[in-house]
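Why predict the complex rather than its parts? Because the way molecules touch one another can change local conformation, and only a joint prediction can capture that. The input here totals 464 residues.
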Amino acid sequence: MPKQTDDSGSAGLAGRRGRAARNDAAILDAAREVFLADPKAPVAAVAERAGVGMSALYRRYPGKEDLLRRLCHDGLRRWIEEAEAVEAEPDAWKALVVFLERIVDADVHSLTVHLAGTFTPTEEMGRDARRAAELMGRLVERAYAAGLLRRDLVVDDIGLVLEGCAAVRVPDAERTRELRRRFLAMVLAGVAGAGVAGAGVTGTGADALPGPAPEPGELNWRWRRPGQSGRV
Amino acid sequence: MPKQTDDSGSAGLAGRRGRAARNDAAILDAAREVFLADPKAPVAAVAERAGVGMSALYRRYPGKEDLLRRLCHDGLRRWIEEAEAVEAEPDAWKALVVFLERIVDADVHSLTVHLAGTFTPTEEMGRDARRAAELMGRLVERAYAAGLLRRDLVVDDIGLVLEGCAAVRVPDAERTRELRRRFLAMVLAGVAGAGVAGAGVTGTGADALPGPAPEPGELNWRWRRPGQSGRV
DNA sequence: TAGCAGTGGAACAGAGCATTCCGTTCTGCT
DNA sequence: AGCAGAACGGAATGCTCTGTTCCACTGCTA
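Output of the joint prediction:
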């Protein structure tokens, strides 16, 4: 075969190895989607979503718990990554907002918080969690010290914000992202100190709420029978 | 088994009928607590929490679904009740805020939204849901027309707020209530228009965030092993 | 071409759960 | 007093769901 068999990192390998590599990603992606929608989802749902059989999954992970743990740890690493990325941003407020937007967009909070309890955490995860908290604390501290956050606000209040954003959910993933962005903007307008442009002059163009507003009945999807749509 | 002592003094009747009446309430209370904590909780958990046997439960409700439906419908009625109660309030902003606080305190949103899908709704519930939406719309419209809500805000954005509040949760119920109040205050500072006292002058005493701020690690309870406490 | 990594999917074992059933207690009425 | 049965506790039942294993099969790879 003209193809050289090496461990090159290129994405599109062909043949058995290539398929295996592709399955690696497919399984992780599927697992993320499935378990974010329902942390108690059965493993078979992941396999089906990924378009693979059970053995493809169990070849990679000793058990369900290991998959969950991997997912959560990946989320934790992503969190750290994003937090480090915005440290370069000189504008303390912008740094915080961009960080929050990225965390919300990637649904990292659900990954790290809502999956917790479904597995026993490792030592390394504990270290990473502390590291993440430290980075987050520094980020908030910067904004706070610069007078850009209201003074009676605590670091963990930001945790509440993320919790709230993660709770916003509709069946469509992209729409969920939009609504979360909108909600985040609403909350940020509330946590902003006097130093932030637009604070106190709410309703003006500067900090207008982003995205299409929720349509009537859009949030009532849990009430709808399968196939039904629109208002309750 | 345990002697049924007739404590007719405190509440209700004595004897068989009295006990039955007390069980009615005990079962509903227990069901609310249990199913709010986990909508998929087993029926046996409700019985245990209520301190009754399975038959006491199944004597009252034909099946689990009926109990869930009852719970949800009660929540819906409570919603309507609270909405009607604040209609008398002349201050449009105060009416809205008080309404939201009551809904959040009673966890009515979880009751009506998170329990949906666990049962097939009745016709009457549909009517009540429409009535609730109508009342809520009127409430928001009042505040909006009076210029007390930011203009780019839609009625269903308030739904997002309630969703966010309901997402705030720690093991202790009372503490959960406090944190939700705090979160609600944060968000309200963000949705308030220029006409509201304190808007734009955040961080001052007027709209100071209520309740003790979340302590470090308080929100990480999902990570803790049983018995462990404190930070991660 | 032989061998085996990689796989799909059915089979299995067991956990969890809604619901039923049975024996018991003790009230309320005759 | 005495009886009928309302109300109950809790074990037993049968079923569904789900994590994991197993085995036959495919087609690269050496």
